[in-house]
Design brief:
Blueprint: E1 4-6, E2 21-23, H1 31-40, H2 49-72, H3 76-94, H4 96-100, H5 111-120, H6 134-137, H7 161-167, H8 172-187, H9 191-200, H10 217-242, H11 248-270, H12 284-289, H13 301-304, H14 312-317, H15 326-337, H16 350-366
Antiparallel strand pairs: 1-2
Helix pairs in contact: 1-15, 2-3, 2-5, 3-11, 7-11, 8-9, 8-10
Length: about 375
């Protein structure tokens, strides 16, 4: 079927208060916007190591400190408060995995290894789970198709898929313990299982049809080192809990915190795009308009879409701009382009975006 999406802004109307719609495959590229994006942000492409390290280390310190507070809290209220802080801080720390896929290896020295040591291995989301996967989502002829690991036409699916999409994420931490603590060591001995583990359980993806290929050379060695470390940690964790060395209460709180970060990320993913394309190759502008910015003045997006993810549409336009420079890039483009195509990807709130998606699912299914 021909997919379409309304070119509407945050209030449900277009740039001039209209509610127009265009077929996705027919949206031409807005060359003025594309050229302006390139020329106005040329000085913003350099990553600033001090910002990356300070942000990551602060998030990690707050996150693990709050987790310890949740375990040791003398009251339920204090435990819950600490747990919420831990979820938000560790979610922010985990979100740097997105930056790792776009950073040049020498842009922030040691950051890949540091992130894996502080976040990737402890939370069982080593960076190879996203490296070599996320870049496929940015390929122009792959975006929004069955070959895109990070795309599902959720707006064109059944209404119940929206809550199911979020609920499944709650089981993520258990799945990762099984993947690294059980399947990974077994797959080293059983070749057919290894193929399944590599193809289906080695990427942070949402497209169930996606099958991963083991990389070669340096990327392969990087993968294997991280996988061995993650497996050693997962097996140790299982053993420590089984022997009572780690109390079951502390383990369950850890699972709850990790689950919270994954659910929050899944909710953010739910509104990262409009999800209204179905198997059509899209222009750069169409991809931009199928993506979402939630710019200031709202403050809450800094919690549920941290590390620049509140500028997701802009990121698709300028994937090389580091997260800390996206606010300035947005200000420049907003001043230059005003209420042009650029403004049509800006939305006000999480609730409005979720409501829009749910209405789209009902509208799509009522017309079939």
């Amino acid at each position: 079927m021909a997919s379409s999406f309304p070119l509407t802004g945050a209030d449900g109307s277009g740039a001039h208060g209209t509610t127009s719609a265009r077929v996705v495959g027919q949206v031409p590229d807005d060359m003025q916007m594309i050229r302006a994006a390139a020329t106005l942000t040329r000085d913003l492409n350099a990553a600033r190591p001090a910002i990356y390290w300070t942000d990551l280390l602060a998030s990690v310190a707050i996150g693990y400190g709050a987790f310890a507070g949740a375990v040791l809290a003398p009251s339920l209220a204090l435990a819950l408060l600490s747990g919420v802080i831990a979820v938000l801080a560790l979610y922010r720390a985990g979100s740097f995995i997105h930056e790792l896929t776009h950073l040049r290896p020498d842009a922030v020295p040691g950051f890949n290894a540091g992130w894996n040591a502080f976040v990737g291995i402890p939370l069982l989301i080593p960076s190879f789970m996203y490296e070599g996967v996320h870049n496929l989502h940015h390929q122009r002829t792959r975006y929004g198709t069955a070959k895109d690991p990070e795309y599902l036409p959720l707006a064109l699916m059944k209404p119940w898929t929206v809550p199911l999409f979020v609920a499944v994420a709650a089981l993520g931490p258990v799945g990762l313990i099984i993947r690294y603590g059980v399947l990974s060591p077994l797959s080293a001995l059983i070749a057919p299982l290894r193929r399944i583990v590599v193809e289906r359980y080695s990427g942070l993806v949402i497209n169930p049809a996606f099958r991963r290929v083991m990389p070669e050379g340096r990327a392969r060695r990087h993968w294997l080192v991280l996988e061995v470390l993650a497996s050693a940690w997962a097996m140790s964790l299982i053993a420590l809990v089984a022997t009572g060395t780690i109390p079951m209460r502390a383990f369950l709180i850890g699972l709850a915190v990790a689950s919270g970060t994954m659910v929050l990320n899944q909710i953010r993913t739910l509104v990262a795009h409009l999800w209204e394309n179905e198997e059509q190759v899209m222009s750069v502008t169409a991809q931009y308009l199928d993506s979402v910015n939630v710019p200031p003045p709202g403050l809450l997006p800094e919690l549920w879409a941290p590390v620049g993810l509140r500028y997701h549409a802009l990121h698709h336009l300028l994937p090389g701009v580091p997260y800390h420079a996206l606010p300035e890039a947005h200000r420049r483009l907003s001043r230059e382009l005003g209420s042009s195509t650029y403004a049509l990807a800006n939305y006000r709130s999480l609730s409005g975006l979720i409501g829009r998606l749910v209405r789209s699912t009902f509208r799509t299914n009522s017309s079939r």
